[in-house]
Amino acid sequence: MSSFDEKPKSLLDDWCMSEKTLSGRTAADGLLATISNRLNESKSEASLTIIQVGSDPASASYIRQKKKASEKSGVRFVHCHLPSSSNFLEIKSKIEELNGDQKVTAFMLQLPLDTEKAISKQEVSTLLNTISPKKDADGLHVENQGQLMAGESTATNWTSPIPATALGIMRLIEHYKISLKGKNAVVVGRSRLVGLPTAILLSHEGATVTICHRHTKKVNEICARADLIVVAAGQKHLIKAEHVHSNTIIIDVGIHVKEDGKLTGDASPEALEKCKAYTPVPGGVGPMTVAGLVENAARLSGVKL
Ligand code: NAD
Asked: Residue 185 falls within a domain, yes or no?
């Protein structure tokens, strides 16, 4: 049974304070275990190929996490490494090769591209749209984004790939039985990768969604009226105590390295202290993004979840 039923048990109505931290690690483990079970039952073979260009250390770390999660759920992982001397046409040609390879059921291009000669934003977009929509593990092909926009593919009725972070956020909401129907959700950030797809998915599940971006005035007042805030602005500690009330749930997508080397998010410690529940950084949206990607890859191989 879906967690998005007509009358779900609402997290906002009866929340146990001992669970103030919404662990993405726990929710991701659950999702990866489900994928593993379904793959075993269906005896399907799923794979995930990642194209990495250059050797950006952050990308290398994300790829290691994706490899670990894929292997945990029984999805075969392939790392396709291109040198930083690669140009636009060489990367495009690798994508076309993978499109035509029957053994490759799902793949993605790890961003940002670490190339010696800069590749323009428009060229990156062209590369993403060269990936076959039927193998688009990250859900960034314009055709898949259109399916999402039209409500053809949603978190509860997945028919085509959904951007991994947005899908992961929806699976976390589902895991913690956070009811969305009739709730006010504010999404801070409207990127193609995170903010916009998340806002659309929340809306499809019955939330009333407001999107804030860098030109929005009085973000604090808009957030203060929200039941749920998803913050993906890439601005350290943007969400302060004045943005939240004691019933607010915060889903923090931002990742920043503090001076002491530890990670923190877009929500300030004061906001986290005051709110009802939040996803931690690290260990919140990060593992869910990886699990969302593995879910797309498994489904693209035909597995039903
Ligand atoms: P982006 O830079 O593409 O988009 C940022 C968005 O935030 C823009 O729409 C911008 O208008 C808005 N914004 C910026 N400053 C703002 C402000 N002061 N007030 C309101 N809106 C503002 O970034 P992105 O790719 O969407 O990523 C956002 C953050 O999430 C980054 O910190 C990124 O590292 C992180 N991220 C984390 C994960 C994860 O798995 N945890 C995944 C993807 C991105």
From this structure: yes
